[in-house]
Amino acid sequence: MGRPRLHDEHLRQRLLEAATDLMAVDGPDFSLRPLVASVGTSTSAVYSLFGSRGELLEAITLRAARSFVDAQEAARVDDPAQHISGLAHAIRAWAKEHAAMFQVVFGRSADSPAVGEARDSTTEPLLRAVTEATEAGVLHGDPVVATGTIFAGVHGFITLELLGLYPADQADALFDAQLAAIWRSWATPEHVSAVA
């Protein structure tokens, strides 16, 4: 029988969750002391499980970006208009449920090729949906530009909502109105009312 592992996957996940919360508030310069204290371990566990502080920061961002993309992939439907609307709602729902991860994905973090790729991947589901809608004649214009403006509008709304700047009883209606306005700016004439 082998020796029990001192630092296991369960501890790794607990460290990632706690580190995500710290990084969302303090950025990548958060202290390891409160991190390890919050999960009842020591800094040696961080180095044993992640190799270095930089690798921990990278793991936090990659985990958050992967979760964000997975939430969008789960929202796929065949209808182009409903797919894009569904993606916007999935992004908002994920951000509200995982506010710390949202801050990590789009806030300050460690710079590495892997983090850059992970951040780039966060708009890929939307870009695919917009490209498909453009090819189907539902949207017009450059899909890359359209994706950028749609994502910026959705992201900006979510950021303000998470800051508490929209009354809770009005936020859903405001989001739907913004989404409809963004849609109208890119929809071809016969599809302008597809997202209302």
From TrEMBL:
Question: Per the UniProt record, which residue ranges are transmembrane?
Answer: none
Q: Which residues form the HTH tetR-type domain?
A: 9-68
Keyword hit for Iron-sulfur: no
**Pfam families the UniProt entry points to:** TetR_C_33, TetR_N
The record ties this protein, via PROSITE patterns, to: HTH_TETR_2 (PS50977)
The UniProt annotation gives the DNA-binding region as 31-50
Q: Which PANTHER family match?
A: HTH-TYPE TRANSCRIPTIONAL REGULATOR RUTR (PTHR30055), HTH-TYPE TRANSCRIPTIONAL REGULATOR RV1816 (PTHR30055:SF243)
The identity of this protein, by name, is: TetR/AcrR family transcriptional regulator
